[in-house]
Specification:
Oligomer: single chain
CATH superfamily of the largest domain: Alpha-helical ferredoxin
CATH topology of the largest domain: Fumarate Reductase Iron-sulfur Protein, Chain B, domain 2
Structural class: alpha+beta
Distance between the termini: 46 Å
Strand order of the largest sheet: 3-2-7-5-6
CATH architecture of the largest domain: Orthogonal Bundle
Bound molecules: FE2/S2 (inorganic) cluster
Amino acid sequence: MSKAKANSKPKDNVSPTVRIYIMGEAKDVPASLTIMKAIEYAGYKLTRGAGCRAGFCGACATIYRKEGDYRIYTALACQTMVEDGMYLTQLPFVPAEKAKYNIKDLSPSAETILRYYPEVARCLSCNACSKVCPQDLSVMDYVQYALQGQIEKATEASFDCVSCGLCAIRCPAEIPQYHVAELVRRLYGKYIQKYPETLDKRVKEIEDGVFEEGFKEFMSMSHDEIVEKYKARDFIDQKKK
Ligand code: FES
């Protein structure tokens, strides 16, 4: 995170405001902003620690404290509103060890998990990982499922993980939980999930140019027209199918 050269002054006439502390510096910012927008409003340029800005990529892990509160809080900066008295630290990167493997050489088993992430056997069941997860996942549960070789259950329990890495930072056993989650989901996708037959059909349709007209239409539309079209789309409820 660096101070931006342009737009470095907070804008006027916006209220109500809250006082937050960014890397120790006091800033008054509109209460209606997310942490990410407040950091930028205060004149910082996020060169790391920002990505999709929509809660999906996990790049914006944040640690903060509140005035008079001893606890450490964690959040995704793009999804969390500022509060008065927040002391914020934006994490540009979580340096957890990621195993290297070729998924084609593995089997979906507890042995595979332990070979690449032996740390999982050190899990103390303290649940610190689940408590810090901004996605409210039961991180400890998916680690335990992985340890037992229950790949499908570990996949389901970790499905909404965005790999922000906050779990790994808090883990006293130094388990890189989110990397374990990536491995179980890859194992599931490669060895357990049924091959979707409709995939080949759709790829062939694309290759045959079935959607060319539609692509051309989208490319010629304005942003607002695309938004309107998206809102008016036929919504298929997969659960009812
Ligand atoms: S920037 Fe992608 S989750 Fe926040």
